[in-house]
Every structure is written in structure tokens, then in C-alpha cells.
Amino acid sequence: MRLVAVDPHDLTAVTASVELLNAAQLVDDPDDHPGIPELAARWLEFGWDLDPETRYLYVNAEGQAVAVLEVDLPRRDNLHLVWGSVVVHPEHRRRGHGTALVAELVRRAREAGRTTIWLGTAEDDLGSRAFLEANGFHYASHDARRKQVLSEVDSTAVDALHTKAVEAAADYVLERLEPPHSDELLAQLVEVTEAINDAPMGDLTFEDEVFDVARLRDIETAREGRGDRIYRLAARHRETGGIGGHTLVVVNQLRPEHAGQGDTAVHRDHRGHRLGLLLKIEMMRWLAETEPQVTSISTWNHADNRYMIDVNEAIGYRLSRVFAMYERTLTD
Ligand SMILES: CC(C)(COP(=O)(O)OP(=O)(O)OC[C@H]1O[C@@H](n2cnc3c(N)ncnc32)[C@H](O)[C@@H]1OP(=O)(O)O)[C@@H](O)C(=O)NCCC(=O)NCCS
User: Is the pLDDT score of 199 beyond 90?
Assistant: First the structure.
């Protein structure tokens, strides 16, 4: 058995990994969109913030790819952490491959001096959860995926919420921001971006993420490298001129009908003015004007993030599935 790193520029290798992951997804998570090789290649090249994870194909003696291992070692913060992913092809399960890959992940974590490993699975996938527990991991947190199917949204109800939110947010003006953002604007966005650290993280061992202008610029560069069209709305406080809240949605040119919700955050000094709700409804209107082909938007929240989930449910997001995050601590 050998592990072969998937070079983002080698479309044959990327495609082999996407085909394996799609075969697993059909069994494990049929509600998700199948992966697209070109899009996966861009993720592997650019990552979230120009610090991508590494993907490996696990190949057996016959030259067949039987599993995919992903290893993400954050470099800007959370230097104790390895965020992994292990997916075994459905036809090759219960033969010890998953166990071998977790052992390899642990070996790599130790080699890199990291002490915490995260692996996730669907909360209702009891087999994968049994596997993780057998491998020394414990349940630490959970995140929910929701989808807003635009044709099913009750627009009368959303309009009524909008009217109330506009009244509550009278001290703010909304601005549509499209990249490239100036350094001055990015500097103004640093504080509100950091507000995402206030979202719950369950029992995961996790430090606040560190944001500065350089990182926000790298996140923007990575999004553009992946082919995302970026829509960001900011709520600016009229009196002080500061940005009190923002929300971001991306539409990828390779999958333009399914948009992805990025961060929505309201700085703690600006909470209580229905900014979250207003930003999200204004974003729906902006997308309807500029990306009319979008049929659905996906969003992820910590499953206990009641405030954000209430906002999302009010504007028509519905639960797709809950995912569990497991953690293992390496003690020596
Ligand atoms: C979880 C997963 C990685 C396991 O891979 P695998 O190669 O089948 O795992 P192994 O053969 O090494 O299993 C080792 C032990 O884990 C437990 N286990 C694994 N799958 C299980 C299942 N479906 N039900 C119950 N126990 C299971 C068993 O104790 C098993 O030993 P056994 O086969 O002798 O009974 C695989 O099912 C998978 O890819 N799932 C989808 C992706 C995912 O959720 N990954 C989460 C972990 S990152």
C-alpha cells in the first residue's frame, strides 16, 4: 500500500480522487453536490487562505485507489492542530484501511509536533462514529448544514421581516462591496471578521483565529483563484463610520446555480439591531439581481448557534444534515 500526494496540477490524479470521494458521497451523503475535478484542483491549489490541505490517494497492491486521506496543518494560528479527513471507498471498507490511515495521520501529527487531531463524520452515521471511537477519538462538537431553496422561500414573510429589520437598523447604512478591496477597507473588515470567533465551537480544542489585512487579502486571492464571484455586504454605522456587521456569499463559475454562504458576523458592540437578518435579506436581493440563475444557497452553522440558525430559518433555510466533529489528543 502506498500514499500518493495529489498534485493540484495533475488533473488525472485529482479526477481519480474526486471519483472516489463521489462514490463514497453517494452512499454517505447523497444530499450534497457531487465534487467537480476542476473545482477540487483549485481548492487543492489555493485552499481557504493560500495555505491548502494536502490530499493523498491510498493505493493498493493492484494499483487501485481505495481511500483518500487529507491532512491540513494550519500555519497562521492553531499550531497544535491537524484537521484530517479519511474516506474509504465503499467497496473497500472493513478491511483495515481506515485504521491504517488514522495511524498514519497520528504519525504525521506527532512528526509535526501537533497534539490535537480532528476528524468529522455525519452525526447519524453510527458506523463511522464507532470507527472513530475505536480509534481513540471523542465527540467534541457538531455543525449543521442548511439549504435555502429560493423557489420555496415565502417572499411575503421575508418582506415583512425586512421592513422590521430596516426600522431596527436605522443607524446603519448597507454597502455592497465587490473585490478587489482596498487595504483601507480590509483594515476596517478585520475587527468584524474576528467576531466569527464568538461563534460556539463545542468542546473542540481551538484558539481564536487571527485575522489581519494580509490574511484577508490572501483569503480574497484564494477565492478568486478558485473561481468564486464574491458578494460582501457591510453594515456601516452612520455615526462612527465603523463596520458593525457583514455577510458574504460566493458563487463559483463551475457551479453557478448553487451559491455558498460565507461568514455572517455582527460585532458585539453592534448587536441587537437586527443587522444579521437585514444583511442576509439584502444579500438575497442583490443575488436575485446579479446571479438570477442561483437556485439554492448552502450554509453551515455550529448546531448550537441559535441566533444565526433562527435568522436562517426565518428566511427559509431548512436543515439538510448535522455533522459531528471528533477530537483526539496526543499526550506523548
Ligand atoms: C469510517 C471509515 C473511514 C472506516 O473505514 P474502514 O476502512 O471501513 O475501517 P476499518 O476497516 O479500519 O474498521 C476498523 C474498525 O472500526 C469499526 N467500524 C468501521 N466501520 C464500521 C461500521 N460501519 N459499523 C460499525 N463499526 C465500524 C469496527 O470496529 C472495525 O473493525 P471490524 O471491521 O474488525 O469490526 C469509512 O467507513 C468511511 O470512509 N466512512 C465515510 C467517511 C467518514 O465518515 N469518515 C469518518 C472518519 S474520518
Answer: no
